[in-house]
Task: inverse folding
């Protein structure tokens, strides 16, 4: 009981509950207790942090991110991951999946091996021993190489592969326990076989960078696909006579949908359509951020290829959108503004919803006894004033 501290909050979104005038007791890297002040006894010796003029929500979970603060996660080094993690923590993101881009196979394999070691070390450290606490890398999200040439977006055409269990096995061997999510285009030959293989190895499977028809998508959902990868982007467009993958994702409650709510990737009206048809409980905010996030306009690299950022919008040399420069905290504010939904329900889209998809909702994305003490303190305009990563203050 030696390390207990008490955080007093004006309001707490757990995010399913709204607790005015609340207290969170933090014991080392875990939450010991949460509740209204009159119901939570604060130990006499506990230091008290007074945020009674603030809102406290769970730390944001970004399940689709490639880099930030000038560094790319495909570098696969401890140094690069720490730089990204520290940048994210300052924006309220307390955990993330390091996301690959389609690249030469040997390059992907060496990045994944590096990332897997970093993920295991972060898990063992229980709150981190690094000097500046950073967001926790939870695992690896494979974006490519089993995607559609037609809907590749910024992914380089030369390194796209046909679905292959043999290649998938090499990727999973390199990743070990860190492999969490894989993206595939379900219309490709043998895609459903590969989908089932990924599911049998415990991965969640996102449908994306895909030209699938409505029927092809439904068959993939029947086969166990869990979600849509950055819904609308990199997909066959919806029309009323050819609803395609977007039409299937919007109307099938068995899948969640990732959304890049940066105001650039998806128009606000299309965001409202997604929110209404799926319900916000099936919307997962992702940043899809690249190394240029948090950096000035200019030339950057995404995985192996050059990208150009102008006015905060990141594109390839051919002009395709190439990830975003957004941070998840900003997209939560955008989602509330675009949809008019309660801020509490939008917070869930960046916390509980991704945690639930990944099956870690007892530990991440919630403020509950026994969960990791990943917390974000927000001012009245919902800007981050403090972040705690596994109990350690970031700012
Ligand atoms: Zn991406």
Result:
């Amino acid at each position: 009981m030696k390390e207990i501290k008490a955080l007093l909050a004006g309001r707490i979104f757990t995010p399913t509950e709204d607790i005015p005038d609340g207290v969170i007791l933090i014991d080392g890297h875990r939450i010991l207790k949460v509740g209204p002040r009159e119901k939570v006894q604060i130990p006499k010796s506990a230091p008290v942090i007074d945020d009674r003029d603030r809102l406290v929500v769970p730390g944001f979970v970004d399940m689709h991110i490639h880099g930030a603060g000038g560094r790319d996660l495909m570098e696969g080094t401890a140094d690069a991951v720490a730089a990204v993690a520290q940048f994210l923590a300052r924006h309220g993101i307390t955990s993330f999946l390091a996301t690959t881009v389609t690249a030469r196979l040997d390059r992907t394999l060496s990045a994944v091996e590096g990332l897997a070691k970093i993920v295991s070390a972060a898990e063992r450290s229980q709150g981190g021993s690094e000097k500046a606490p950073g967001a926790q890398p939870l695992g690896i999200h494979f974006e490519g190489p089993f995607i559609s040439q037609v809907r590749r977006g910024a992914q380089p055409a030369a390194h796209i592969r046909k679905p292959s269990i043999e290649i998938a096995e090499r990727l999973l061997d390199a990743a070990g326990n860190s492999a969490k999510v894989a993206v595939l285009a379900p219309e490709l030959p043998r895609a459903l076989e590969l989908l089932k293989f990924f599911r049998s190895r415990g991965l969640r499977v996102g449908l994306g960078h895909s030209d699938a028809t409505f029927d092809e998508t439904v068959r993939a959902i029947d086969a166990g696909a869990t979600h849509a990868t950055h819904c609308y982007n990199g997909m066959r467009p919806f029309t009323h006579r050819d609803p395609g993958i977007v039409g299937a994702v919007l109307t099938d409650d068995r899948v969640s949908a990732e959304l890049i709510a940066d105001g650039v990737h998806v128009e606000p009206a299309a965001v409202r359509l997604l929110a209404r048809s799926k319900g916000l409980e099936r919307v997962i905010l992702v940043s899809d951020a690249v190394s240029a996030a948090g950096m000035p306009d200019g030339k950057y690299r995404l995985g192996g290829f050059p990208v150009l950022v102008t006015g905060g919008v990141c594109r390839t040399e051919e002009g395709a959108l190439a990830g975003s420069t957004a941070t998840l905290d900003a997209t939560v504010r955008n989602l509330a503004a675009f949809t008019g939904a309660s801020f509490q329900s939008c917070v869930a889209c960046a916390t509980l919803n991704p945690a639930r998809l990944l099956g870690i909702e007892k530990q991440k994305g919630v403020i509950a006894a026994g969960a990791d003490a990943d917390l974000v303190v927000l001012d009245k305009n919902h800007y981050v004033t403090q972040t705690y990563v596994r109990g350690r203050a970031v700012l």
Q: What stands out?
A: The chain has a mean pLDDT of 96. DSSP finds ten helices and 20 strands in the chain. The longest helix spans residues 105-124. The pocket of zinc ion is lined by residues 64, 66, 99, 143, 288, 323 (CB under 6 Å).
